[in-house]
Amino acid sequence: MHNKVVYHATKALNGFGFPVLRFNFRGAGLSEGEHDEGRSEKDDVRAALDWLKREFNLPVIFAGFSFGASVGLRACCPLPEVMALISLGTPVHADGRSYSFNFLSQCAKPKLFVSGDHDPYGPREELERVVAGAAEPKKLVLIETAGHFFEGKLDQMRAAVHKWIAELLPQARTARPL
Q: pLDDT averaged over consecutive 10-residue blocks of the chain (178 residues)?
């Protein structure tokens, strides 16, 4: 929730005037509960979306980073209130775990994948296979020489998110990148 990738994604979305919610999954930071390998964390995403619906009642663009992207994509694909998905630093292999994204073949929502081309948790070739298996519409942006946390390339990551949203929502093109 408090890393630079999430912060810059928040700024990109907020630059369009969208309300943005950042949250910790169960067992992270000061959150209650215990980490559940992504199973119960889908409920955390749904709880956050329920809160957004109550507070703002607007369509949602989900954005997640790393583990949050994996869990969020899985939780948000079937939900009608989520209109688009952004996956930053999509993990394919991390911490001894392999992630499966087969469900994306049935997810017809617009999807943006942004990763560093030197991300050890999402090697380029494997990430390209994940994206190739996803339903249209989809876009993959690889940031040259960037690692998992987009070190020294956060502005490029943020610009990719901003550009994609401006293409997705033409009425939002007048937003200034922050």
A: 86 89 62 58 85 90 93 94 96 85 97 98 96 98 97 96 92 52
Neighbours of 105 (CB within 10 A): 11
Residue 112 lies inside a defined structural domain of this protein:
yes
User: pTM of the prediction?
Assistant: 0.89
- Strands 82-88, 97-98: parallel, antiparallel or unpaired by DSSP? unpaired
**Which CATH number does the domain housing residue 75 bear?**
3.40.50.1820
65 φ, ψ to 5°?
-120, 130
Number of domains the chain is built from: 1
Please report whether residue 177 resides in a domain.
no
Phi and psi angles of residue 17, each rounded to the nearest 5 degrees, phi first: 85, 10
CA angle 169/124/111 to nearest 5° reads 20
Give the span between the Cα atoms of 102 and 105, in whole angstroms. 6
